[in-house]
Amino acid sequence: MATPSLGTVLVTGGAGFIGCALSQALAESADRWVVMDYMHPQVHATSGKPDALHASAELIVGDVTSAADWDRVLASVRPDTVFHLAAETGTAQSLHEASRHSRVNVVGTTEMTDAFGRAELIPGNFYLSSSRAVYGEGTWQGADGTTFNPGQRTHAQLDAGEWNFAGATALASTAVDTLPMPTSVYGATKLAQEHILRAWVNAHDTHLTILRLQNVYGPGQSLINSYTGIVSLFSQWAREGKQIPVYEDGDIVRDFVFIDDVVSAFVAATRRSPEKDEAPFDVGSGEASTILQAAQFIAQYYSAPAPSVNGAYRDGDVRHASCSISRTVTSLGWKPEWTVERGLAALQVWINAQIDAGKPAVG
Ligand SMILES: NC(=O)c1ccc[n+]([C@@H]2O[C@H](COP(=O)([O-])OP(=O)(O)OC[C@H]3O[C@@H](n4cnc5c(N)ncnc54)[C@H](O)[C@@H]3O)[C@@H](O)[C@H]2O)c1
Asked: What stretches of 140-251 show up as alpha helix (H) in DSSP?
């Protein structure tokens, strides 16, 4: 089905990994595709327009936390559709750089809505890329069948190597059933973005669709940002013949979702009329993997040494992050197409091509 015209589209943070991939899928369905991006040096090696951004996309270098930048952008762009992707995304980094994460993710969102107010502009549709980080540890189920929200693991528990919650099993999160209890500042700021945008959108009779993304990976992800994207980092280490270190006992669970499946979820979201106050949509592969499994696959791909499980841990890391995608599949008419193994192999092909072409990577 063709995507109906999105009119003039503004994508904050649209020069990043997800924004560039989205532009390739949707820019031709827009009258204008305008990206407002600060070109964060942690993510981008240069501040020029990325090759991966659609040729028709216009890049305006601007900071979502700056009222002046917003006024400059909205003086020449009157968006009908807004994809709000701009964010500081370092989950672990956010615990010690909390102000920076809050400024961009929280204040950047309120500066956006304030700027729409000053410009007397109410875009018809907002799409927010939220995160599985809002769930924290999510919900676990004890041996007796009762469920509970354990919250963050204590240092005493982690120092004793008690990685799980004794006798309990983690349940896949869903926006409808799982109480959000972030364990990172990043997760808290993503939850705040959801609430702020929802409040503003409802007060202005416009529309909001929130996608809660699991761990997104694939061609196009930043190769220089060592604070996010462990799959890319593991790949670069293994490619150099290094042993991949894996935290805890290796059995930290994640849902790795391939970039094309995330883009197709956004595309599917643009083809429907959102309902007022509908719950966010969980976007994942539907497959729970351990970090060790991913590391082993990547190490084998490069014939690197087997990963070393080191028993270390990081504050704020959750033990288990996976989601049920069934409501998203039904409501958006979408389904993921990429298995983790196929996606990881496709990522290696891309990384090799990038590095062989001399593109900057994590040193
Ligand atoms: N990649 C994932 O695994 C994942 C998972 C869940 C949610 N998300 C969310 O998806 C969105 C996009 O993530 P991504 O993976 O493309 O990250 P990315 O880092 O590749 O892209 C983010 C973009 O935002 C820009 N940016 C940062 N600060 C800005 C500011 N102050 N003003 C304007 N632009 C700014 C960066 O320059 C970058 O281009 C984020 O909101 C992130 O929270 C990503």
From this structure: 155-159, 185-203, 230-239
Contact 14, 53 (CB under 8 A): yes
Q: Which atom of ligand 1 is nearest to the CA of 215?
A: 3
Q: Quick check: CB of 63 below 6 Å from ligand 1?
A: yes
* Residue 15 CB partners (closer than 8 Å, separation 6+): 35, 37, 39, 44, 49, 50, 53, 59
Q: Of 278, 270, 281, which Cα lies nearest the Cα of 211?
A: 281
**CA 49 to ligand 1 center in whole angstroms:** 16
> Per-residue pLDDT tens for 41-100?
999 999 899 999 999 999 999 999 999 999 999 999 999 999 999 999 988 899 999 999
* pTM for this prediction: 0.97
Q: Which amino acid, 212?
A: R
Residue 89 CA: which ligand 1 atom is closest? 43
CA atoms of 298 and 219, how far apart (whole Å):
15
Q: Is the CB of 30 under 6 A from ligand 1?
A: no
Reply yes or no on whether 186 is catalytic. Answer: yes
- Asked whether the beta carbons of 4 and 28 are under 8 A apart, the reply is no
Given 3.30.930.10, 3.30.870.10, 3.40.50.720, 3.30.360.10, which CATH number is that of 8-356? 3.40.50.720
| Closest ligand 1 atom to 213 CA | 6
Q: Is the CB of 208 under 6 A from ligand 1?
A: no
